[in-house]
Design brief:
By secondary structure, the protein is of the alpha+beta class. The protein has one helix at about 30-45, and strands spanning about 5, 10-15, 50-60, 70-80, 85-95, 95-105. The chain has one domain: Hotdog Thioesterase (Thiol Ester Dehydrase, Chain A, Roll). Helices cover about 15% and strands about 45% of the residues.
């Protein structure tokens, strides 16, 4: 997806679904919806030069989404007290909010280093 940033820091992108992404017959899988919203919020932070990871993600599914729908994503920073960023995102179809999310992101530079075995 190509995310575009506006002057106020919000990002938007267009996503076109596919039958390969369906959960129930003809309906976009909820996990795909959650991933799209998370991706939009992550990219919103990237546009501001902030590398952060999702610490908490809350998704509200308002309406079923056809698996082949053209969708618009929007995301913005709701509040920030670095290293914590609270984010909001929406997934729209024809201007109607189909799902939305809030999340908490933690800036990477503040995370402890982990050794991998």
């Amino acid at each position: 997806m190509q995310f575009k940033a506006s002057d106020d820091g919000e990002v938007t992108a267009i996503f076109k679904g596919s039958y390969l992404l369906q959960g129930y017959n003809g309906i976009l899988h909820g996990g795909v919806i959650a991933s799209l919203l998370d991706s939009a919020m992550t990219n919103c932070l990237f546009q501001q030069g902030i590398n952060a990871v999702t610490g908490e993600l809350n998704v509200r599914y308002r309406h079923s989404i056809p698996c082949n729908a053209a969708l618009e994503l929007r995301a913005r920073v709701a509040s920030e007290i670095p290293p914590l960023f609270r984010m909001k995102a929406e997934l729209l179809m024809n201007g109607k909010v189909m799902a939305h999310a809030t999340a908490k992101f933690m800036q990477l530079s503040s995370l402890p280093k982990t050794e991998y075995i």
